[in-house]
Design goal:
Layout lengths: L1 H24 L2 E7 L7 H8 L2 H4 L2 E7 L3 H9 L5 E4 L2 H8 L6 E8 L4 E5 L15 E3 L6 H12 L9 E3 L7 H6 L5 E5 L2 H8 L3 E5 H5 L5 E6 H6 L1 H20 L2 H8 L8 H13 L11 H13 L9 H4 L3 H6 L2
Parallel strand pairs: 1-2, 1-3, 6-7, 6-8
Antiparallel strand pairs: 3-10, 4-10, 5-8, 5-9
Amino acid sequence: MLCFTLLVATCLLFSACSSDNSEEQKRDKVRIAEVTRSIFYAPQYVAIEKGYFKDEGIDIDLKTTWGGDKTMTALLSNGADIALVGSETSIYVDAQGSSDPVINFAQLTQTDGTFLVARKKPKYFSWDQLKGSTFLGQRKGGMPQMAGEYSLKKHGINPHKDMKLIQNIDYANIPNAFASGTGDYVQLFEPQASLFEQKGIGYVVASFGEESGKLPYTSYMTKQSYMKKNSDVLKRFTRALYKAQLYVETHTAKETAAIIAPHFEDTSVDLIEKVVDRYKGQHSYAVNPILEEGAWNNLQSVMKEAGELPKKADYNKLVNTTFSRDATK
């Protein structure tokens, strides 16, 4: 009888272990390469901190790759499963004749996220003040720079003739370059722009997001091969993202700031709140993950204006809204 009891106990133990392992096997690890760490991506951090991804059986491995070229390299070399980066990068890859195209499947932000920061606080601001100035811009061919150029031209300023345009500074070092004295104006993301205001280093005078209109500015994308093999993972991933987008849209900036604060340890919660509120005010956060064709066409108009559109990109080839439309049902 004792032997039988021990046998049953042993079987139950192995059964429990087997069950636990089975549960673990159901979880999927997804490696995300984000182009930068920014409050601009608040819904992503909400999805992580609120456990929306975990609820969908997904464990997120998030790495910041600092720059569109590095982010796309990580994706193409299988260093990441999903890239969070400007949609223009998928157009560049397609133009090079890739046999495994990069597909945009969920949109995170819908406007440019940068701001024009002046070294000196003007009594009033007009775009004409930039003529003859030194402008510290973003990387050539990147979405921030193209949206910036589009906005400048909209106000009658040729960035390559009417000012000294600096574009040879690495993305991560642009704030430091401005802080050390380079440039009269700089194009910055948050929270750096607001942080400079706090320290008296510079002053936000305009929003490139408001100037350049609706764009698929930052999207989640993956290789076609990964999408074919992991459609269920992407379906659950997008569903979790949409929950977070709804949270940010329907809750106060203060509530969102408190949740995403762990991702910005060197930034005060009050400043995070200010930035979230600023982005919400100009409708930068997409309220759903669907990348619409109209926004895709506007993106190409901005790229063409900047002389960076290699060829017209087929929306139906490089955008897949199956997962985003399913998530919003």
